[in-house]
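Table 4 source record.
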Amino acid sequence: MSISPNPEIGGDIIGTVIYPPYDPCDNNNILKQSVSYDWHIYNKRGTEVYKNINSNITSLNIGTLNLKKGIYFIIVSNQSFVIKNKFIIR
């Protein structure tokens, strides 16, 4: 997952799921087969401040969520993987 810019300073911050390079030797690319994602954002106290379940989005504009300044943790998952990352809003 890519979070940019991190830390955010007065602009938009974008979270994007990035797939590994496609290997033509693989029979199936498991990560790209999954089309439903669960997005969760938690503040530093562990309170969930955003949730989007069974979504087909691979990129989220976190700047539109009007989060307060602070440290946040984002978790994106589906049946094949779980991605965790930290970001800061200043």
